[in-house]
Write a structure and sequence with these properties.
By secondary structure, the chain is α/β, with parallel strands linked by helices. The protein has 5 helices and 14 strands. The radius of gyration is 18 Å and the shape is elongated. Strands 1-2-3-5-7-9-11-13 form an 8-stranded mixed sheet. Strands 4-6-8-10-12-14 form a 6-stranded parallel sheet. The protein has a single domain, classed as Ribonuclease Inhibitor (Leucine-rich repeat, LRR (right-handed beta-alpha superhelix), Alpha-Beta Horseshoe). One of its GO terms (biological process) is brassinosteroid mediated signaling pathway. This is Leucine-rich repeat-containing N-terminal plant-type domain-containing protein. One of its GO terms (molecular function) is transmembrane receptor protein serine/threonine kinase activity. One of its GO terms (cellular component) is plasma membrane.
């Protein structure tokens, strides 16, 4: 069941509590995000960028887990629901084994623009709820173990400029809804198990500059 969250502005202190919760659920080391009350996450925490005093970017790429966190790593990011002006979330090369939660797109702030989850050991399906994040401009999900078909809802991401789904285990065909991704500049779905015809409307998207469908099992160009 997908939960829809009504967003109200959180205070920085509430966002700070959310960051501590995120640090706990992901098993992050304290040297990146120290605990003292006098610490300002906007200025003193690694990978945190703020805009107008509110957390706008979380970058945990290159972070290491505690020993306890390494024993049971999970994709546990529920705390992001209280980062209500989040624009970027980068976990490149940070292990998040397991599927992207089905509620991800409905619980994360709709202001999210860049999502980078490359090399995160993600499994399972791409949740349909991802299509609810209408402000996304860049989505990087490559080099994981993501399976299943591409959700039709991705075609609702009309602001998307970059979509990288390469080097996964995706199956099925390219959804017809991809014809609506008019702002797409780069589309990489190489090295998957995709099949069926390639829709001409995808090949001829008006701003598309880079298209990589190599190493799949596509049959032919369809008439759309």
């Amino acid at each position: 069941m997908i939960r829809v969250k009504i967003y109200k502005g959180m205070s920085l202190s509430e966002e700070r509590k959310a960051l501590f919760l995120l640090r706990s659920t992901l098993g992050l080391r304290r040297n990146e995000w120290p605990r003292p009350r006098t610490v300002n996450p906007c200025t003193d925490w690694k990978g945190i960028r703020c805009k107008n005093g509110r957390v706008a970017e979380i970058n945990i790429s290159g972070f290491r887990r505690t020993n306890v966190g390494q024993d049971n790593p999970q994709f546990s990011v529920e705390a992001l629901q209280n980062i209500t002006f989040l624009e970027r979330f980068n976990a490149l090369n940070f292990k998040l084994p397991g599927p992207i939660p089905v509620w991800f797109g409905s619980i994360v702030a709709p202001s999210l623009q860049i999502l980078d989850l490359r090399f995160c050991s993600i499994t399972g399906l791409i949740p349909s709820s991802l299509g609810m994040l209408g402000n996304l401009t860049m989505v990087y999900l490559s080099n994981n173990a993501i399976t299943g078909p591409l959700p039709m809802s991705l075609g609702q991401l009309w602001n998307l400029a970059v979509l990288d789904l390469s080097h996964n285990s995706l199956v099925g065909s390219i959804p017809s809804s991809f014809r609506y991704l008019d702002n797409l500049i780069m589309l990489d779905m190489s090295s998957n198990h995709l099949t069926g015809p390639i829709p001409p409307s995808v090949v001829t998207l008006p701003h598309l500059q880079y298209l990589n469908l190599f190493n799949n099992s596509f049959s032919y160009l369809s008439k759309d």
